[in-house]
Write a structure and sequence with these properties.
It is a single chain. The protein has 235 residues and is of the alpha+beta class. It is built from 3 helices and 4 strands, in the order H-E-E-E-E-H-H. The chain has a 4-stranded antiparallel sheet with strand order 1-2-3-4, with helices on one face. Strand 1 and strand 2 form a beta hairpin. Helix 2 runs antiparallel to helix 3. The chain starts with a helix and ends with a helix.
Length: 235
């Protein structure tokens, strides 16, 4: 898409946001926006479904409640973007920079987040069912009350991540970096730090082991959620 045309669409959308009787809601569905510079753009509620935003710069943009269904955002810069309530169902966010992004209440069902940088991202109450998070950086991310059922978190970095209240049933986990020690699973055994036990032993003993190793109540809960999700997957 030509830069001048894109500029007009964004300007019209801004007018529409201020007064629905003026301007026009942005419809960028199926648009070719590869490498586009949308830094600090206000596209709140815009339609970007199936858009090609590969390697685009969207840093600090407002995409709250935007429709990004099946959009291609591979390698895009989405750092500190407002994506609250956005529809990212089946979107390709692989290797995207989502550092500090606000994705609370976003629909990420089936999204590809493989290798994405979600350091410090807000993912509270987000729908991450069936999402591919292999190798994603979730260091310090807030996943409170997120739905992670059937998500693939193999090799993800969850150091200092908040998983309080998250639904991790049937989540695929093999190696996960958590708040203090990395969790390794091999067949029916799990090793955390120097402690290696069967999955069933961990389920029955993780609280006692955590207390004995001076883990906080929150850390024990996080490890317990992950261990129980592994048990459900193996059952």
């Amino acid at each position: 898409m030509r830069k001048d045309k894109l500029k007009v669409i964004i300007t019209e959308h801004k007018l529409w946001l201020e007064d629905k009787s003026k301007g026009k809601k942005a419809d960028l569905s199926n648009a070719d926006l590869r490498d586009a510079n949308l830094y600090d753009a206000d596209l709140c509620g815009a339609n970007l479904s199936n858009a090609n935003l590969r390697d685009a710069n969207l840093r600090d943009a407002n995409l709250r409640d935007a429709n990004l269904y099946d959009a291609d955002l591979c390698g895009a810069n989405l750092s500190y973007v407002d994506l609250r309530g956005a529809d990212l169902h089946d979107a390709d966010l692989s290797y995207a920079n989502l550092k500090g992004a606000n994705l609370s209440n976003a629909n990420l069902n089936g999204a590809d987040l493989c290798g994405a940088d979600l350091c410090g991202a807000d993912l509270r109450n987000s729908d991450l069912r069936n999402a591919d998070l292999k190798g994603a950086n979730l260091n310090g991310a807030d996943l409170g009350d997120a739905d992670l059922r059937n998500a693939d978190l193999k090799g993800a970095n969850l150091h200092d991540a908040n998983l309080h209240g998250a639904d991790t049933r049937h989540t695929c986990i093999n190696t996960i970096k958590l708040s203090r020690h990395t969790l390794y699973q091999h067949n029916e055994y799990i090793q955390i730090g120097c402690e290696k036990h069967s999955i069933f032993e961990w389920v029955n003993m993780y609280k006692q082991i955590g207390i004995a190793n001076d883990y906080s109540d929150v850390e024990i809960e996080i490890y317990g959620n992950v261990i129980n999700s592994i048990l459900e997957k193996e059952s």
